[in-house]
Every structure is written in structure tokens, then in C-alpha cells.
NAD(+) diphosphatase (Cherax quadricarinatus), 143 residues
Amino acid sequence: MVSWRDAHTLSRANSVLLWNRNNAFCGKCGSPTERNAAGHLRRCSSCNMTHYPSAIPVGIVLVTDPSHQNIVLVRQPRQPPGMYSCIAGFSDVGESLEDTVHREVAEEVGIEVSSVRYVASQHWPFPGSLMAGCFAVAEKQEV
């Protein structure tokens, strides 16, 4: 079993390696980029543009009914039978974390939520995301 500390280190290393591999060329002019010693930035050899790795924001939410007696989980087709998860989805450009949670819950299960509360975040290496965990309450008791 890998410790949380080691898992974080491995997750970060995986993301930096993938980012370096996928950014060997400048997104502005197409010329090769050069990696700095730490691997956390790349500079274009032609236009001198500096490229930095970015994390894709993802909202993940545990939804409860108003009485906090029931929770809403989803099952994705790719998951094995009996496996369920919280609702999650990528943030769109210009969207707040709260907007992401409202939209994803409405899209995935068709219910409205309120009281979106941020809890904690965690780096997720697939595909280099920052998972922002939230709680939310369904507007109606029937969930």
C-alpha cells in the first residue's frame, strides 16, 4: 500500500512527465520548447514564450436530501456492477466551482441543489486535474 504522501508525489510526478511530453512544441509558433531543470516550465526556442503546466478544475460533490438522511450517487457504464460514485465533472471556461456543481448535478441526475459548500481539494493525475470536493443539498426531499 502506498502512503498518501507517496501517492501525492507519484501523482504530481506523473502529471509533470505527461505535461512535458505533451508540450514539446510551442502552442504559439510550433517551434520546439526546452524544459527547465525542475521540469515545471518550458520555454520556446524561437519566440521565447514560457509555458507552465496547468491543472484542470473538476467539481466533485456529495449531494444529500434536505434532511441529510439520504445521499445521491451515480453509476457510470464503465464502472463494475455495484460500484457507485459521487457526481463529478470538469469546470467550463468562465464557470465558478459552484456553477460547475449546479450544472453537473442537473445534467447527471436532473435535480437542483443549494448550499454548495467547498470541503477540500486533491490533485488527480488523470488527466492532470484539481478535484474540488463539495457538499450540496437537494432542493427537494425526493432524491
Summary: The beta strands are 33-35, 42-44, 50-51, 56-64, 71-72, 87-90, 113-124, 129-138. The longest strand covers residues 113-124.
